[in-house]
Amino acid sequence: MKHDLTGIFPYLVTPLDQEGRLREQVLRDLVNHLIAAGVHGLTPLGSTGEGAYLDWPTKKRVIQIVVEETAGRVPVVAGVTNLTTPGAVREAAQTEDLGVDGILAVLPTYFPLPDQQQVLDHFRQVARAVACSISLYTNPKFAAWDFSVETLQELCREDNIGYLKDASGNIGKLMSITTTLGTRLKIFSATAHVPVFVFMLGGVGWMAGPACLIPRQSIALFELCRLKKWEQALEMQKQLWPLNVAFQKYTLAACVKAGLEMQGFPVGAPLAPQKKLSEQGEKAVGDVLQHIQEVSLG
Question: Full-prediction pTM beyond 0.90?
Answer without folding.
Answer: yes
